[in-house]
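Reopening this one. Same input as before:
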Amino acid sequence: MASKPIGATGFDRSLVEGPIGPAVWKLAWPTMLQNIFGGLQGMVDHAMVGHYVGFTGNAAIGVSWQIFLVVMVFISSLFTGMGVLVARFAGAGDAAKANRTVYQAFLTSTAISLLILAPVGYLLSPTLLQFVKATPEVRAEALPYLRTMFVFSFGMLTFFMLGGALRSAGDAKTPLRYGIALTVLNIVLNVIFIAGLGPIPALGTAGAAVGTVLAGGILSVVAFHRLVTGKWVVGFPKHESWRPDWDVIRSLFRFGLPTGLQGVAMNVGGVLLLRYIGSLEQSAEAQAAYSVGYGQLFSLIIWTSVGLMGATGAVVGQNLGARHPERAIEAVSVSARVGLMVAAVIGLLFLVIPRLLLEVFGMTDPTAVGLAVRLLQVLAVSGFFISLALVYTGGLQGAGDTKSPFYISLLSQILVPLGGLAVVATIRPLVPLDVWLAILLGHITRAALSITRFRQGRWRTIAVDIRGH
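Same output, byte for byte:
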């Protein structure tokens, strides 16, 4: 007899019962599509700024995002811990614990965003831009952009929390709808603030940040109302006090902190990579090539793979909560095949029409275009490895093993690529191709180590729970 799709708690039981392929795809396709729309949002920023400001504007956004993500990924790690817990509780059918977890994650991230990220980020922005060796022209464009993102990041964090909570509970379509609305709203606001409209002056690069934070703020208000009123599969518990629940918060940090450190390690590696790019003979052109080629076009692979990672983690966590570990293993294999197919299609575009893709972002400088074309050729290969790495990372994190991906990232995103560049720099002056190949080497290393660690199977013994009231 076929099981009912929705259990008594409101959780989708088809994720833990029946064919695993459709279960994975049910979460994967909306998550991948949501991330593609999110990536398009960044692409629109780059394209409009590239046409209105020039390649220095592209470089400014790329450098600013690399810095901003170091901090944002760390705070968002709370949502990884939240996702591990919510998926386990959803798989076990425990709605009360799932809702407590979501509520405490919201309170904690709000406090960190408003009391720490906003003031500290505003004060340190000039120093951070100097650290990555951005040129004076790029710094002038990047500073107002970066400060705006730091100070008004609350809406973006709320949106990330929403997506992680609903996806872990088995609902990936609601985050997709909100993601599309966020992207459309952001594009409309960017048209207004980047180029100016009526009495609103043209803000150029800073206008892209204003559009982003306004869109996130508006959608966060809507999401907050839905969570409070209990309109979704998870929400805020009724009659819950504003006091922190330290048992839940400790669990959030237990599973989330390693992911935050992993994100910091990866983005610090990216910042240090920018320092190498900044030391090249044609640093501004190379930074623009990196910002558009890696930061935007390669995001088509990264964000679809990140979507697969989130979907994989949710399915793995729910099946472990339902005591079906073999289905968890099968889910990772299904996601890996999907990721490889996506990487193949996008990689082919990088090889066949690279200049056409770059023209979308207003890249016309011959030197910058030449560097970006070579980068895309390397990334066409690298896409296969980062897809595998992210899918298997999702499997590990969904099972509660968030420490292994952190150690793997330290090795693959910092030691291997940056160590290799340091060695080459002692022999001869670095050229852009050295940096591009270092990226590829890091992705190969990360894929190999992630697959090996998951297949060892030690994640089977990890306990995930919180005390009941």
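So the earlier flakiness isn't reproducible anymore. For the record, The chain has one domain: 19-461.
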